Amino acid sequence: MLVLSSPSGAGKTTIARALLRSDRNLVMSVSATTRQPRPGEVEGRDYHFVDHESFEAMIREDRLLEHARVFDNLYGTPRQPVDGALAEGQDVLFDIDWQGTQQLRQNARADLVSIFILPPSVGELEKRLRSRAQDSDDVVRKRMAKAGDEMSHWPEYDYIVVNTDIEASVAAVQSILAAERLKRDRQIGLADFVNRLRGGEQVPG
Prior knowledge:
The chain is an alpha/beta fold. Helices cover 44% and strands 19% of the residues.
Protein backbone atom coordinates (compact mmCIF):
# COMPACT_ATOMS: atom_id res chain seq x y z
CA MET A 1 0.00 0.00 0.00
CA LEU A 2 1.82 3.07 -1.33
CA VAL A 3 0.44 6.42 -0.16
CA LEU A 4 1.12 9.76 -1.84
CA SER A 5 0.02 12.89 0.02
CA SER A 6 0.60 16.58 -0.59
CA PRO A 7 -1.11 19.95 -0.46
CA SER A 8 -3.35 20.54 -3.47
CA GLY A 9 -1.22 21.56 -6.44
CA ALA A 10 2.08 20.06 -5.24
CA GLY A 11 2.03 17.35 -7.90
CA LYS A 12 0.93 14.07 -6.31
CA THR A 13 -1.72 13.34 -8.95
CA THR A 14 0.74 13.91 -11.81
CA ILE A 15 3.29 11.65 -10.09
CA ALA A 16 0.65 8.98 -9.44
CA ARG A 17 -0.39 8.90 -13.10
CA ALA A 18 3.23 8.56 -14.23
CA LEU A 19 3.77 5.65 -11.82
CA LEU A 20 0.68 3.84 -13.08
CA ARG A 21 1.76 4.23 -16.71
CA SER A 22 5.17 2.71 -16.02
CA ASP A 23 4.33 -0.10 -13.57
CA ARG A 24 1.91 -2.89 -14.47
CA ASN A 25 1.93 -4.32 -10.94
CA LEU A 26 0.64 -1.05 -9.45
CA VAL A 27 -3.08 -0.26 -9.38
CA MET A 28 -4.83 2.90 -8.26
CA SER A 29 -7.19 2.95 -5.34
CA VAL A 30 -10.15 4.98 -6.58
CA SER A 31 -11.61 7.06 -3.77
CA ALA A 32 -15.26 7.82 -3.20
CA THR A 33 -16.18 11.48 -2.77
CA THR A 34 -19.21 13.67 -2.30
CA ARG A 35 -17.76 16.57 -4.30
CA GLN A 36 -18.84 17.39 -7.82
CA PRO A 37 -16.69 16.15 -10.75
CA ARG A 38 -14.17 18.59 -12.19
CA PRO A 39 -13.93 19.08 -15.96
CA GLY A 40 -12.45 15.96 -17.57
CA GLU A 41 -12.90 13.69 -14.54
CA VAL A 42 -14.49 10.30 -15.23
CA GLU A 43 -16.66 8.29 -12.84
CA GLY A 44 -14.84 5.15 -11.71
CA ARG A 45 -11.47 6.28 -13.07
CA ASP A 46 -10.79 9.45 -11.08
CA TYR A 47 -13.35 9.04 -8.29
CA HIS A 48 -16.57 7.30 -7.39
CA PHE A 49 -18.92 10.27 -7.11
CA VAL A 50 -21.64 9.63 -4.51
CA ASP A 51 -24.11 11.70 -2.50
CA HIS A 52 -23.76 12.33 1.24
CA GLU A 53 -26.39 9.74 2.17
CA SER A 54 -24.60 6.98 0.24
CA PHE A 55 -21.24 7.97 1.74
CA GLU A 56 -22.63 7.89 5.28
CA ALA A 57 -24.01 4.41 4.59
CA MET A 58 -20.55 3.24 3.49
CA ILE A 59 -19.13 4.50 6.82
CA ARG A 60 -21.84 2.78 8.88
CA GLU A 61 -21.38 -0.52 7.04
CA ASP A 62 -17.56 -0.45 7.46
CA ARG A 63 -17.02 -0.45 3.69
CA LEU A 64 -14.27 2.18 3.84
CA LEU A 65 -10.63 1.65 4.83
CA GLU A 66 -10.37 5.33 5.68
CA HIS A 67 -12.42 8.49 5.28
CA ALA A 68 -12.02 12.18 5.97
CA ARG A 69 -13.68 15.54 5.45
CA VAL A 70 -11.66 17.86 3.22
CA PHE A 71 -13.04 21.39 2.92
CA ASP A 72 -16.81 20.78 2.60
CA ASN A 73 -16.65 17.33 1.02
CA LEU A 74 -16.17 13.74 2.18
CA TYR A 75 -13.52 11.42 0.75
CA GLY A 76 -12.90 7.74 1.47
CA THR A 77 -11.28 4.53 0.23
CA PRO A 78 -13.63 1.61 -0.58
CA ARG A 79 -12.32 -1.50 1.16
CA GLN A 80 -13.28 -4.29 -1.25
CA PRO A 81 -11.24 -3.27 -4.36
CA VAL A 82 -8.09 -2.74 -2.25
CA ASP A 83 -8.40 -6.10 -0.49
CA GLY A 84 -8.94 -7.81 -3.85
CA ALA A 85 -5.89 -6.23 -5.49
CA LEU A 86 -3.63 -7.06 -2.54
CA ALA A 87 -4.88 -10.66 -2.52
CA GLU A 88 -3.82 -10.94 -6.18
CA GLY A 89 -0.30 -9.78 -5.35
CA GLN A 90 -0.62 -6.27 -6.71
CA ASP A 91 0.57 -3.09 -5.01
CA VAL A 92 -2.06 -0.40 -4.47
CA LEU A 93 -1.42 3.33 -4.88
CA PHE A 94 -3.33 5.81 -2.72
CA ASP A 95 -3.75 9.53 -3.45
CA ILE A 96 -5.06 10.62 -0.03
CA ASP A 97 -4.46 13.29 2.61
CA TRP A 98 -2.79 13.05 6.02
CA GLN A 99 -6.05 12.19 7.79
CA GLY A 100 -6.61 9.17 5.59
CA THR A 101 -2.98 8.16 5.91
CA GLN A 102 -3.24 8.13 9.70
CA GLN A 103 -6.24 5.80 9.51
CA LEU A 104 -4.52 3.48 7.05
CA ARG A 105 -1.46 3.36 9.28
CA GLN A 106 -3.61 2.22 12.19
CA ASN A 107 -5.20 -0.50 10.07
CA ALA A 108 -2.22 -1.79 8.09
CA ARG A 109 1.09 -0.44 9.40
CA ALA A 110 3.35 -3.23 8.14
CA ASP A 111 1.87 -3.03 4.66
CA LEU A 112 2.02 0.76 4.30
CA VAL A 113 4.67 2.98 2.72
CA SER A 114 3.92 6.69 2.87
CA ILE A 115 5.43 9.54 0.82
CA PHE A 116 4.73 13.25 1.28
CA ILE A 117 5.19 15.52 -1.75
CA LEU A 118 6.26 19.09 -0.96
CA PRO A 119 6.24 22.06 -3.38
CA PRO A 120 9.53 23.93 -3.90
CA SER A 121 7.94 27.15 -2.55
CA VAL A 122 4.60 28.63 -1.50
CA GLY A 123 4.67 30.90 -4.53
CA GLU A 124 5.10 27.96 -6.87
CA LEU A 125 2.26 26.09 -5.14
CA GLU A 126 -0.15 28.99 -5.74
CA LYS A 127 1.05 29.33 -9.34
CA ARG A 128 0.33 25.64 -9.98
CA LEU A 129 -3.13 25.88 -8.43
CA ARG A 130 -4.04 28.86 -10.58
CA SER A 131 -2.59 27.33 -13.75
CA ARG A 132 -4.94 24.35 -13.43
CA ALA A 133 -7.87 26.73 -14.08
CA GLN A 134 -10.17 24.25 -12.34
CA ASP A 135 -10.99 26.23 -9.20
CA SER A 136 -12.39 29.66 -8.44
CA ASP A 137 -10.28 32.33 -6.73
CA ASP A 138 -12.13 31.61 -3.49
CA VAL A 139 -11.30 27.88 -3.69
CA VAL A 140 -7.64 28.64 -4.46
CA ARG A 141 -7.47 30.92 -1.40
CA LYS A 142 -8.97 28.16 0.77
CA ARG A 143 -6.49 25.61 -0.57
CA MET A 144 -3.56 27.94 0.09
CA ALA A 145 -4.81 28.65 3.63
CA LYS A 146 -5.02 24.91 4.30
CA ALA A 147 -1.65 24.08 2.74
CA GLY A 148 0.34 25.15 5.79
CA ASP A 149 -1.59 22.81 8.07
CA GLU A 150 -1.26 19.95 5.59
CA MET A 151 2.51 20.45 5.26
CA SER A 152 2.91 20.41 9.06
CA HIS A 153 2.23 16.66 8.95
CA TRP A 154 5.36 15.84 6.94
CA PRO A 155 7.16 14.18 9.93
CA GLU A 156 4.46 11.47 9.98
CA TYR A 157 5.57 10.11 6.58
CA ASP A 158 8.26 7.57 5.72
CA TYR A 159 9.68 9.58 2.80
CA ILE A 160 9.68 13.22 1.67
CA VAL A 161 10.04 14.33 -1.97
CA VAL A 162 10.34 18.02 -2.88
CA ASN A 163 8.74 18.34 -6.29
CA THR A 164 11.03 20.85 -7.98
CA ASP A 165 11.17 18.84 -11.20
CA ILE A 166 8.38 16.41 -12.04
CA GLU A 167 10.57 13.86 -13.86
CA ALA A 168 13.06 13.76 -11.00
CA SER A 169 10.22 13.41 -8.49
CA VAL A 170 8.68 10.50 -10.42
CA ALA A 171 12.10 8.81 -10.53
CA ALA A 172 12.51 9.30 -6.78
CA VAL A 173 9.15 7.69 -6.03
CA GLN A 174 9.92 4.82 -8.41
CA SER A 175 13.17 4.23 -6.51
CA ILE A 176 11.31 4.17 -3.20
CA LEU A 177 8.81 1.65 -4.56
CA ALA A 178 11.58 -0.58 -5.94
CA ALA A 179 13.49 -0.54 -2.65
CA GLU A 180 10.40 -1.29 -0.57
CA ARG A 181 9.53 -4.26 -2.79
CA LEU A 182 13.01 -5.68 -2.14
CA LYS A 183 12.62 -5.65 1.64
CA ARG A 184 13.02 -9.13 3.08
CA ASP A 185 9.55 -9.36 4.60
CA ARG A 186 7.87 -8.40 1.32
CA GLN A 187 9.57 -11.04 -0.84
CA ILE A 188 7.05 -13.86 -0.82
CA GLY A 189 8.61 -17.31 -0.87
CA LEU A 190 12.11 -16.01 -0.13
CA ALA A 191 12.76 -18.45 2.73
CA ASP A 192 11.91 -21.44 0.53
CA PHE A 193 14.07 -20.05 -2.28
CA VAL A 194 17.10 -19.67 0.01
CA ASN A 195 16.59 -23.15 1.48
CA ARG A 196 16.63 -24.61 -2.04
CA LEU A 197 19.80 -22.70 -2.81
CA ARG A 198 21.45 -24.01 0.34
CA GLY A 199 20.42 -27.53 -0.56
CA GLY A 200 22.18 -27.29 -3.90
CA GLU A 201 19.02 -27.32 -5.96
CA GLN A 202 19.27 -25.68 -9.37
CA VAL A 203 17.01 -22.62 -9.23
CA PRO A 204 15.93 -20.97 -12.51
CA GLY A 205 17.46 -17.51 -13.02
